[in-house]
Amino acid sequence: MRIRRSSKDDINKLVDLWYEVSLEAHNFVDKKYWKSAKADMKEKYIPNSETYVIENNNELSGFISMLDNYLAAIFVDARFQSRGFGKELLNHVKKDRDYIELKVFKKNIRAYNFYSKNGFEIKEELVDKKLKEEEYLMIWKK
């Protein structure tokens, strides 16, 4: 496993990984929503965030994107989930921060459990305005 800062050459792989994992993890959201967000991920969100990728045998296996202290995205290829890749990415960004915030859909129980196991606590319950889905605002503090 190796973590490195993402490069422009990674963008298509990152967007594809984000899309595939989003469909799986958020099966309660209409697929059209994720498809319509692909361009924004490629042109706005990923390029404007601090993004790190994790590789396994030189294969991009996951990534994490931060906007200051906000965890905007963490996605691990389905083949590498539950093998410590997400935890490694999380620990990589934790070491340079005193706190991290994120939002997670209430229905995404697997992600919620992952964040809880990694020291995040619910700060507030919210509703996503676009999708009308309940979500948690979670926070981790050093």
Determine the mean pLDDT: 94
Tertiary shape? globular
Strand segment count:
7
The total count of helices amounts to 4
Low-confidence stretches: none
CATH fold name = Aminopeptidase
Could you say which structural class the secondary elements and strand pairing correspond to?
A: alpha+beta
Measured as a percent range, the helix fraction is: 25-40%
- Number of domain modules: 1
Question: Can you put this structure into words, describing what you see?
Answer:
Keywords: Acyltransferase, Transferase. This protein has helices at 11-25, 31-45, 85-94, 109-117; strands at 2-5, 50-56, 59-67, 70-76, 99-105, 121-127, 134-141. Helices cover 35% and strands 35% of the residues. The chain has a single domain (2-141), classed as Gcn5-related N-acetyltransferase (GNAT) (Aminopeptidase, 3-Layer(aba) Sandwich), CATH 3.40.630.30. It is α+β, with helices and mostly antiparallel strands. It is globular, with a radius of gyration of 14 Å. The chain is built from 4 helices and 7 strands; from the N terminus they run βααβββαβαββ.
Based on the model shown, name its key terms.
single chain, 142 residues, alpha+beta, Aminopeptidase, 4-stranded antiparallel sheet, 3-stranded antiparallel sheet, 4 helices, 7 strands, 35% helix, globular
Draw up the topology in text.
Blueprint: E1 2-5, H1 11-25, H2 31-45, E2 50-56, E3 59-67, E4 70-76, H3 85-94, E5 99-105, H4 109-117, E6 121-127, E7 134-141
Antiparallel strand pairs: 1-2, 2-3, 3-4, 5-7, 6-7
Helix pairs in contact: 1-2
